[in-house]
Amino acid sequence: MDSNDLEAIRRQRIEEMKKRAKLKQEWLANGHGEYTEIDGEKEFFGVCNKSENVICHFYRSDTPRCRIVDMHLQTLAKKHVETRFIKLDVERAPFLTGRLKIRVLPTIGLVKDKKTKDFIVGFTDLGNCDDFTTEVLEWRIARAEVIEYSGDLLVPPAEARRQRALTVHAKKTIREKQDSDSDLDFSD
């Protein structure tokens, strides 16, 4: 590579960064970066038409587990500006909830390119407990390719941490090979 090649790569990278910054401004103008409540089915379809990636929490205000999901999605909305995070009270959208066959609350609908790609129903996919981490929910959402995720999609975050810990312990051996300076000879 010579200096002309490096300069071309640099210009290309600057152009990509400008495009990304412009996209980010468009996303923020469309309500990305926030976790907002929408009023009904009409607004749901409007949001899906404006945004490529949408995460919709179908909830009911008197369901305690829906508040747990709200807390996690509030955090993820700020982190993943590329996706629009919304919530919709199922009582305000009977046609949509019937059409999507939503029977368990909370249900998180993952929409990509105006099509429902996946659903997270209840807490079964999140460890089947109320105290799951935001990281686990982020990983589960990322499996539907609705957010940009840098981790391993095949391994849940807790298991990945355990594997890294085991790898670190495996490297901490006293002696990996026999020392050639030893006075003892075990070759006999």
TrEMBL record:
It comes from the Eukaryota. InterPro entries: Thioredoxin-like_sf, Thioredoxin_domain. Residues 42-124 form the Thioredoxin domain. This is Thioredoxin domain-containing protein 9. It comes from Papilio xuthus. The lineage of its organism: Eukaryota, Metazoa, Ecdysozoa, Arthropoda, Hexapoda.
